[in-house]
Amino acid sequence: MGGRGWERMQTVRLGAAGAASRRREAAELRQVSSQTVRLGRVQPQAPSHRTIYCNDRDANNIARFKGNSISTTKYNVLTFLPKGLFEQFRRVANLYFLMISILSTTPISPVSPVTNVVPLSLVLLVSLVKEAFEDWKRFQNDTAINSTPVDVLQGQRWESISWRKLQVGDIVRVKQDGFFPADLLFLASTNADGVCYIETANLDGETNLKIRKALERTWDYSLPEKAAEFKGEIQCEQPNNSLYTFTGNLIIESQTLPLSPNQILLRGCSLRNTEYVVGAVTFTGHETKVMMNSMSVPSKRSTLERKLDKLILTLFGGLFLMCLIGAIGSGIFINRKYYYLGLFGDVEDQFNPNNRFVVAILTMFTLITLYSTIIPISLYVSIEMIKFIQCTQFINKDLHMYHAESNTPALARTSNLNEELGQVEYIFSDKTGTLTRNLMEFFKCSIGGEAYGTGITEIEKGQAQRTGKKKNEVNRSDTAVHEKGFNFDDSRIMCGAWRNERDPEIFKEFFRCLALCHTVLPEGDESPEKITYQAASPDEAALVTAAKNFGFFFYRRTPTTVMVRESHVEKMGNIQDVSYEILNFLEFNSTRKRQSVVCRYPNGRLVLYCKGADTVIYERLADANQDIKRLTREHLEQFGSAGLRTLCLAYRELTNDLYEKWNEKFIQAKSSLRDREKKLDEVAELIEKSLILIGCTAIEDKLQDGVPACIETLSQAGIKIWVLTGDKMETAINIAYACNLINNDMKQFIITSETDAIREAEEKGDPVEIARIIKDSVIHDLKRCLEEAQQYLHISGQKLALIIDGKCLMYALDPNLRVNLLNLSLNCGSVVCCRVSPLQKAQVTSLVKKGARKITLSIGDGANDVSMIQAAHVGVGISGLEGMQAVMASDFAIAQFRFLTDLLLVHGRWSYTRLCKVITYFFYKNLTFTLTQFWFTFQTGFSGQRFYDDWFQSLYNVIFTALPVIIVGLFDKDVSASLSKKYPELYKEGIRNMFFKWRVLAVWAFFALYHSLIFYYFTTAASQNGHNSSGKIFGLWDVSTMAFTCVVVTVNLRLLMACNSITRWHHLSISGSILAWFVFIFIYSGVMTPYDRQENIFFVIYVLMSTFFFYLMLLLVPIVALLGDFLYLGIQRWFYPYNYQIVQEIHRHELEGTSRTELMEVGNHLTPVEARSYAISQLPREKSKHTGFAFDSPGYESFFASQQGVFAPQKPWDVARRASTRSKRTSQR
Amino acid sequence: MNSSSGSAAGPSSGSGDESAPRRNSKRPKYSKFTQQELPACKPILTPKWVISVFTLVGVIFVPIGIAALMASNSVVEIVDRYDTECIPANMIADKVAYIQNDTINKICTRNLTVPKDMDQPIYVYYQLDNFYQNHRRYVKSRNDAQLKDADKANKTSGCDPEKTTKDGSPIVPCGLIAWSLFNDTYNFTLGNQNLSVNKNGISWKSDRDHKFGKDVYPKNFQNGTLRGGANLDPNKSLNEQENLIVWMRTAALPTFRKLYGKIHQDLKANDTIMVTLENNYNTYSFNGKKKLVLSTSSWLGGKNDFLGIAYVTIGGLCFFLATAFTVVYLVKPRKLGDPSYLSWNRNPLGH
């Protein structure tokens, strides 16, 4: 086996990442060198495998395997600076400023290098500090992992050493619940049979335990004394990243034993239900499979940032235009007639009137350095800081997104996408584990035409809330029982009270049907309290649990009998163990949609019990008793519209003759070799008829808390939710109903491969033909649906829903049909895709992402959702329960689906509005500043003379206007969190990108222009002719300092005007910034140092401040500038208010509640839309057609197959779902 | 950002078993900061606010504007453009040749009538037009170290092209600014009485004390082939040469005034002052204008209506806007917080 396996591995690895092969080459090199010091036992190693000598460090030293310490840091002390700087200069803005800085050291530059170097270095410093901090945290994390203790065999004792000191070949002991420190070869365990159980949640997200079995030869090395004698030699493949393969041999005492993945314990897994195991280390540190699998998550950039790039590009365009104008001007201006410019004789090229073209070109460069401030250098770093704090402080620490039960707070894993959360239009959700808890509870039932069960489902509560009716939960009576799988209360039938009902016999049939007709295996102690049921689907377990609670306790199953402990049969307290002989079992499958048992009572009575979907049961009912049928049908519909999964129960009395005849056929069918399945189905049809309806059950597929409400809120917010699930169509539709995604008002389009034509083709089994038929039907269906959809949209305005299954989707995603699919699905309010593979989930996501250019979010919890999570703009993982795979791939992790409301409507919306504000403001302030320079250029003969001092310009972005905008980016809040959720429609502003449109930017640009004109022309016009009573005149630097003061004050105040809420941090930062300017200028112009290049600014501010002129200007210019904005804002708010502004006004008198939930109750008045929908809901209308149908579960067939020892290929997404199989199934077999 | 999933291998990140005791809750601590519930005031720009702000600005601005206008009006200013007048009729065709010819006597007399009473001190300015003192080549053509420190006379960097004389000895003060020093002179007589012009204290004290050295004397100044402007007295230190100091504080715009001197004598309305001036400075090359300005000053400085007009206009505009808004408010009021304004209420389909 070994040899062939290696070959295979090699080809795999050749195809795999280059890194692996490089590593291998390096290993080869080392091995070649090691050959020269060949010692006794060492043999030359073939390059494609490694040889490990267990428990013999000296022998292994020669091969120089890597240590077990891991490092996930990006830098070390030496590489930090070069590598970090390199990373920084990969950003265009930084590179641009580096070039400008270099340019400004040449004489061409009007500014000294300090102007551009200072902001650049500050920006770099901040970025590098952040990088260093993050790397430091990674380093600490690594250190913590590396120094975890593990027991290693040293001599004849276990000694605790840290993980990092572990070496290949060491023998280690791992205790229960401990993590494996490296990839181990499993030698021995405390369990009998050399078995141990591991949990692989960290690797693949599966929570069910997996069994590993050691080679029999090594079973007894579990004690240190014995283990010390172990001298094996492992020959195995080189490290690789394939989690599910392993090839190698263990050579003990010249006996070669083949190894398989079954003997390998991978790093990252943990040991369960086993006291301890002993293993030999095979791969360490970065060579472990989990580490070789750790891929870097592709970093996503937000849409806003991509739009920002366009803005920057536009600014570059603007810069170029300004420079061009200036350059042409300078070429025209320059002239010898200005003799005072000294243009006679030998003049440098830039001012040489003989060559005006060169003058223009050079001035171009001059102006580029002068106007460089138009590109907001600190923008990126500010945004990064804002987002970082938003993530770490706001999202991660939001108490509203903390789930107490699982002790999980929200986690933002990237900080790139905060504002993307505010613009999501499509949510793709997984079902199980995300929308539902995968927990089934017996909730209601209908027996003999009477409905029982007083509970109210979430969806009923939601409906009641919408229609304004208060539906109070009936107080739970004493008889109410709530255990796993059973949440039912009705005093009429609990505690044996059913015997007093009209027809107790039918109750008996009902309960016996529940207790007998199933495939559940009981486990554990045979008492009602302690027993646990192992069932293929949680539905089944719920039904059996229900029977138990009604007094029909199923406690034992033998191959031919089912033991039921019946109490309350005749009178209270009378307990009776009854053994029913199970004669036949007619299995469930997806075509039959029912299952039956034929059983013989101890008294010889022969009964067939059947349960299944209402459609199939009703077809097979006897004609009698129309009343029950009608009533039960009504109940089914009721239950269905309440989001419950229903099953019909029926029975049939059989006579011995009839049964014997049928049984012959059955046995024949069972033993047939061809088409056995089909024949069995046919035989079953013969007996499953003339059934007598008993009633129906209703099981609640327990939704996660608050899911319907959350979905309701999100859809009000204009977000469309698509459910993508591996489940069957019925289940998916059921959940869609339960979550309010689909309701009976909607027109449903169903595109399914479960049609007769397709089924027929599938039975013939010609793949080409199947493909053709499905494709044709998909084309046809799509066309039909599109036509109908257009009609419905135009005529009735009815909402549409699309349900499509995986097979059809496969064809619908064909490039030719894609457009149709997209067209149809975008017009639908909800879309449900069932039976889809993980890949299809990703395809659907990118269909919308790329095809419709909408912003998408995927949410899921399992390994099968990873591709979808990575494909969407934003990936959200549900953390807490099902392992880490989805979370590791996600951008945000939350514990509950309902937290999406907070994540999107509160954090996302705020982040979006804040960042829009930050970006537009940055754009404005830099444009304003640069334009003043531009106006000045016109009056300096286009010479590129700077208006401001170098230091003013260099500190403008990084000191005088830096902090307030960050504060706004953190604290600005248009409406409170509770109002954001109360008015979900506010979110639409983000979807439509209302705050970062070109129109918004144009308004800012206009005001930038206006402000710069005011700043420049007001100060220059007002500063002529002497400005104090001593008749002295201002010079250039006095005027520019005056203008700069006005700029700083106005620009900061402008930000204050843009704020929706003003905290003391706003005050502090804005006044602080203005103050910083004054402090700076007082010091800068007051102190003369020998290092100053020029003393232009000396004393300027004191000169200015000694005049009235200064104060009058300081009052005039900012006010005039801001009046324009004020007027605009006033008119905008008055005549064209944004929605959030109205909401602000509605709630202007409310104090902000400390708790967001307080406000949720406020204001029950209906909006017109709500009133309309209320009125519609009151109208009499056709009865609901939907009834739920419960009885399927993903992985159902494969579960049975595995029970019977047949191998069925497990689809990973099926397996991941089966939480029920967590405990040790094997021990019982 | 945390691109590596390496922590998956760590023992700390396990999904945890239900039975495992949970001593350390990961519940975030409450703080107003992290829950984003910092106390804040939330200004809403209601029509009332708009109207009252405009009114307030109007109320403040108009009086200030009036005061500034009055100040500006109280200033008496005589402006006389003489560059076109002080040129002999025969040279009018070639003004540049006239001004560059040292042999021609440039003395010229002008009679100015005082329009109103002028109280002392009366400031004498010269005003130049189309003179780009703010040109980049011009602005940087000086060396501050040289001006300040006698030991640094050799420091002439940046002074191109007026760094050194032909033989390489440094010029003090170097550079184009000093070289192009204004050199027209004015003498005033009122009737027979000579009006003395005080040329001290015309520069900012800070410039005098800190930028121009007491022991720095002009050297090699105006020694070149081309003469730019005025000569400096080599025996007077730079910090006493106030006309240079004033000139070296470069102007912001191509039209500028510079203080020439002060007359400490009151003038009566209709007095006629005779100005005897030497028209030396070449503005003809670049079509610049030269003006002589006599002006009194107010608390706000010289005659400049700009501030006053700006204040009054803005104030008036504010009043107008306040009224306009009030009218709109009365005619078509918008109810604050009217839910029917919400877009999804205006358009039930919400599209």
From TrEMBL, chain A:
**Annotated binding of Mg(2+), by residue:** D430, T432, D861, D865
Q: Which residues cross the membrane?
A: 311-334, 357-381, 918-936, 951-971, 998-1019, 1039-1056, 1068-1087, 1099-1123
Family matches, as Pfam families: Cation_ATPase (PF13246), PhoLip_ATPase_C (PF16212), PhoLip_ATPase_N (PF16209)
Bilayer topology reads: Multi-pass membrane protein
Task: List cellular component terms (GO).
Answer: Golgi membrane; plasma membrane; trans-Golgi network
EC number(s) on record? 7.6.2.1
Q: What is its main location?
A: membrane
- Entry's localization field: Endomembrane system; Membrane
Binding-site list for ATP: D430, K431, T432, E540, F588, K611, R645, T725, G726, D727, R835, K841, N864, D865
One GO MF annotation is: ATPase-coupled intramembrane lipid transporter activity
CDD domains (alphabetical) = P-type_ATPase_APLT_Dnf-like
**Domain (P-type ATPase N-terminal) ranges:** 52-116
Q: Which InterPro entries match?
A: ATPase_P-typ_cyto_dom_N, ATPase_P-typ_P_site, ATPase_P-typ_TM_dom_sf, ATPase_P-typ_transduc_dom_A_sf, HAD-like_sf, HAD_sf, P-type_ATPase_IV, P-type_ATPase_N
Q: Where is the P-type ATPase C-terminal domain?
A: 887-1137
Name the chemical reaction catalysed here.
ATP + H2O + phospholipidSide 1 = ADP + phosphate + phospholipidSide 2
Active site feature: D430
Cofactors, names only: Mg(2+)
Q: Which Gene Ontology biological process is one annotated for this entry?
A: phospholipid translocation
Q: What's the top EC group for this one? A: translocase
SUPFAM superfamilies of this UniProt entry? Calcium ATPase, transduction domain A, Calcium ATPase, transmembrane domain M, HAD-like, Metal cation-transporting ATPase, ATP-binding domain N
Which of UniProt's keywords are assigned here? ATP-binding, Magnesium, Membrane, Metal-binding, Nucleotide-binding, Translocase, Transmembrane, Transmembrane helix, Transport
- Family the entry assigns: Belongs to the cation transport ATPase (P-type) (TC 3.A.3) family. Type IV subfamily.
**What protein is this chain from?**
Phospholipid-transporting ATPase
Q: Upper lineage ranks?
A: Eukaryota, Viridiplantae, Streptophyta, Embryophyta, Tracheophyta
TrEMBL record, chain B:
Entry annotated with the keyword Membrane: yes
Which InterPro entries does this one have?
Answer: CDC50/LEM3_fam
What are the subcellular locations of this protein?
Answer: Membrane
Q: Which UniProt keywords apply?
A: Membrane, Transmembrane, Transmembrane helix
Q: Where is the composition biased (Low complexity)?
A: 1-18
Q: Classify the protein's membrane topology as the record does.
A: Multi-pass membrane protein
Residue intervals passing through the bilayer = 49-71, 306-331
Out of the domains of life, which is the source? Eukaryota
Q: Which GO terms describe its cellular component?
A: endoplasmic reticulum; Golgi apparatus; plasma membrane
Locate the region Disordered.
Answer: 1-33, 143-166
The principal localisation class reads membrane
User: Do you know which PANTHER family this protein is assigned to?
Assistant: CDC50, ISOFORM A, CELL CYCLE CONTROL PROTEIN 50
Stated family:
Belongs to the CDC50/LEM3 family.
Question: What protein does this entry describe?
Answer: ALA-interacting subunit
Species whose genome carries this gene: Ensete ventricosum (Abyssinian banana)
